[in-house]
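Input.
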Amino acid sequence: MKIEVLSKIDNREVQNSIISKIRDLINFKNLEPGDKLPSERMLSEKFGVSRSIVRDAIQRLEFYGLLKSIPQSGTFVANLGVTAMNGMIDDILRLKVPDFKSLVETRILLELKTARLAAIRRTDDDLMQMKGALEAYSDKVLKGEDAVQEDLLFHLAIAKASGNSSLNTLMLMITPEIITNFEKHQVCDKGMARNGIKEHQDIFNAIKNQNPVEAKEKIKIHFKTLYQYCYNIE
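Output.
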């Protein structure tokens, strides 16, 4: 019987189980770098789970550079030795879902860097995207509506403007968890949201004026309240 509907925690546990089985398969068959794995359908039947679960497990391993999927060709073992691969998979299986404090700390560290780079590298198209997100955020806040997603779209636009695909990817990875936790902890009250309009505008102006020092400083000011709030959560 295939597993189709799972809670987030259960889904992660099943994914980890499949990752372990993929590792065992690679070791048992002595697959070397460049060797091809069985298809998703075959792995799904072999492990007794849905293809979507197998696909998610493969994508996690691909993200960490342990597998490489090639369209129309299949999934292949990456160019790593057996010892390195097994050690990295052990580390992956020990990873926990990040808590709110970890997400906030990671986000602040990333955004201090992305804002600085954005001020140096931003294009006119980047500015248009940031301005559009800023206006959407301001519009919702002034109407008294929830603007968490618009807030994050503004910051994602900054990450894109940084011109660093790795930083941009990391921001995209943590954004869904940030949205969930903001709603759970009710972080952005109306006062914080209204202050955020000016703070976002200050960040935008610093990036527009290509002033990386000021952009970094405005990000620090913007996140000061959030950082303090984070450490008051029980």
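DSSP finds ten helices and two strands in the chain.
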